[in-house]
Design brief:
Nucleotidyltransferase, domain 5; 19 helices; alpha+beta
Amino acid sequence: MAATANFLAADLGASNGRVLLGRWDGSRFDLEVLHRFENGPTQVLDRLYWDALALWREVNAGIARYAATHAEPLAGIGLDTWGVDYGLLDSAGRLLGNPVHYRDSRTAGVMEKVFEVVPRREIFEVTGLQFLQLNTLIQLYSMRLERDPQLDCAARLLMMPDLFHYWLTGHQIAEYTIASTSQMLDAATRAWARDLLRRLDLPTHILPEIVQPGAVIGPLRPEVVKATGLKNAPPVIAVASHDTGSAVAAIPGLDAHSAYLSSGTWSLMGVEVDEPIINEKTLALNFTNEGGVDGKIRLLKNITGLWLLQEARRQWEREGRSYTWAELLAAAEEAPAFRSLVNPDAPDFFEPSNMVDTIRAFCQRTGQPVPQSVGEVVRCCLESLALRYRWVVEALEEILASAGRGDGRQIRVIRVVGGGSQNRLLNQFTADACGRTVVTGPVEAAALGVIMMQAVATGHLAGVREGRAAIAASIEQETFEPRRDAGWDEAYARFLALAN
């Protein structure tokens, strides 16, 4: 086998997507962005959708870009997306409708109706997943309550990356890490929780075979090879198809004393464990057990991340005021510290029409100074996120201790990856608030995880440990040490009152 290889990664996030080339030279990876594109919801009548066909066109454009600019045959193609969302196919393999966006309002109040049929505790004991109204299980039950005809017509359910896997190869599978975001997987057996679905009158025949990260799904379909101009039909590999799973796979130095923080529109913060932790503490704190690579479980918490700041920036743009990220962070540094705080995970912020007004209303309702300037709003968002991270780190240590895994498992380092790792002010706030060292990088963690797992699957790397070491040799990281400031402890006490 050649010591060098070229792999493609299609990394589809909730706000944008990239197709990247990953070159492996036998010791390190080099990334090249071939194609960038926007992604986001499309409102039609009363429903919020993903434009799956537009995304498919963009993935093909990225592959075609490689074919037009590089002569070397591809060694593999891998793909990841956000979690929980899905497409439904008919018996001929045709998409029945545009996949619905997880922020669509159809799931409002549906969790409580699910609990009337199957109690919350019983669902958690099987799935080990935190309760969010956007989970696949809740979305499907909303379709049942609406008597949506697509549910009865469906022959197959494919999570979003698996929908693209099918269009790339013609094979219908469920990759394990993305399936684990659905709240329809048995955490212990790592198989579909069919009994749970039957109790909710949800179809089980639509569930495909589950495959593990690193499995070869099949060669790229001849039609795609021809349409994109590729010189070979590379294998399409089931990497960790949940973007957070791929991001965590790419974190150098992730050990028993590290927590990871995948920072973007969502922040996902957790630790790697060997088996799911499903107990009273995990249930009470609403943490989740999702699948990882190399047989690991990602024990984590979903946090509303930079969504608050992204939506505030969009609102200012709507008002005719455009700010660069550098300008926003500079304004935040000049604003007074610890003036106003919000709970980023409050329902207020899930789908606001005006994020700036929503932040101000939250502060007014909770008896705090109302942030007025741009800098005050941005600082409120960043300090609140850092304090939420502190709560999650402390909760993680509680959960590990409750499961008898706390001895010597104190979290000393927070390893931040993803686009949010470039936010140096938030990184320093996180170190200060949590009292832990913060190490950042890689920025393109999900893409590197996709590339690395392909290198493992094709024999270019011996395993994930070797892959993480190769990634460490391929990137630059930055360290932020916590600064002593008593103001963070006082702010944390205030934050806890807001979060309860």
